[in-house]
Amino acid sequence: MKLLEERILEEGQVRPGNVLKVDCFLNHQLDVALLDAIGEEFYRLFQADGITKILTIEASGIAIACMAARHFEVPVVFAKKAKSKNLDGEVYTSVVHSYTYGKDYDITLAQKFLTPGDTVLIVDDFLANGKAIQGLLDICQQAGATVGGIGVCIEKGFQPGGALLRKAGYKLASLAIVDSMSDDALTFRPQD
Ligand code: 5GP
Fold this sequence. Notes:
Elements: H1 2-11, E1 13-15, E2 19-21, H2 32-46, E3 53-57, H3 60-72, E4 76-79, E5 91-97, E6 104-110, E7 119-127, H4 131-143, E8 146-156, H5 161-167, E9 172-182, E10 185-188
Parallel strand pairs: 3-4, 3-7, 7-8, 8-9
Antiparallel strand pairs: 1-2, 5-6, 9-10
């Protein structure tokens, strides 16, 4: 997606540990017009996949999921990172290793919000080693829900998450795939 690639080139900053900082438009300050275009693009890519629910993980995935949901006209449900006293009833849980914080955390989702009748579009901001998405896939499996697709804004193609998910047969769409990055250069994988 050209618009997203341009913004990454203009405002992205490469940080130690292969972290791409895009907090000007995606991770802290939010460019709603850009997010709207991202939501529309996910709709174009997954509209034929029978999506009944959009699933993401807090916090950065939520805005992306909401903008996509406006086009799909389905609910958004997000996995919570903190154990909340507010979650009533039974919950699905999974453990995710955080790329940016370097430690494991639990994710939780109330069982009533994901059922075997659902066909899910999983969305997130970044795909690196794939641990966050694997946690969401685990929750879909626990729920007996069908995974209709996975939509990611920025895939770091030099890390293994994307290749693993494609090999496992998932329909994965990454709107920008960064093939290499350093302090002074960043290249994207050509896409149709
Ligand atoms: P994974 O679980 O695929 O290894 O990493 C994906 C998760 O880690 C995303 O939810 C995102 O929050 C975070 N992440 C991974 N790499 C980056 C990065 O380069 N920049 C930012 N801002 N977040 C990242």
